[in-house]
Description:
This protein has helices spanning 20-34, 42-57, 65-79, 86-98, 105-114, 127-134, 147-150, 157-167, 181-191, 222-228; strands at 8-11, 118-123, 143-146, 174-178, 194-198, 214-216.
Amino acid sequence: xxxxxxxxxxxxxxxxxxxxxxxxxxxxxxxxxxxxxxxxxxxxxxxxxxxxxxxxxxxxxxxxxxxxxxxxxxxxxxxxxxxxxxxxxxxxxxxxxxxxxxxxxxxxxxxxxxxxxxxxxxxxxxxxxxxxxxxxxxxxxxxxxxxxxxxxxxxxxxxxxxxxxxxxxxxxxxxxxxxxxxxxxxxxxxxxxxxxxxxxxxxxxxxxxxxxxxxxxxxxxxxxxxxxxxxxxx
Length: 234
């Protein structure tokens, strides 16, 4: 039985389209070197930073991603016993918008556009931060929906509900493509929209109580998935 062809493909940005882990790790290593602690485990730093960031994102009232990044940086450095300087967080915020796409992403997005799909990013960020990333995606993105616009961060359902309202789609008219199990797959499970998980071999693990519609290793496999579903116009 052929499932309905989606009108919109929505994407998580960081880790799915944009090289988030690679860029963040490099940024943290540079930060630790500046502070004279190059031997400190960058992965441990990121683990602590993520814990603070995710807690702050779900703590009302809503704050911009930039402000949360500043608070998370200060709390992480304090926890590690390192001094906090004003440019520590600002250098990270600047770096996020400069992070490049994965090599296969622009051509895949181009192919999807040629197939007649509308493409939208749904991301836990601010409009000003993500615009540098979107500018590197070849002009193929039709809409960008951010946490700033929705005043809510994933896995809060409000961000996806806002995105679907803005796109004027029912759940069977959208397919979400993401790399984050606990931010994106959680909402796909709860709200019931179709979802493809991009498992790039990171430390992220699938949810124990949810199976996505497909699991792929990178975006270059999406065209074959689309063909296999009978949705291609070739």
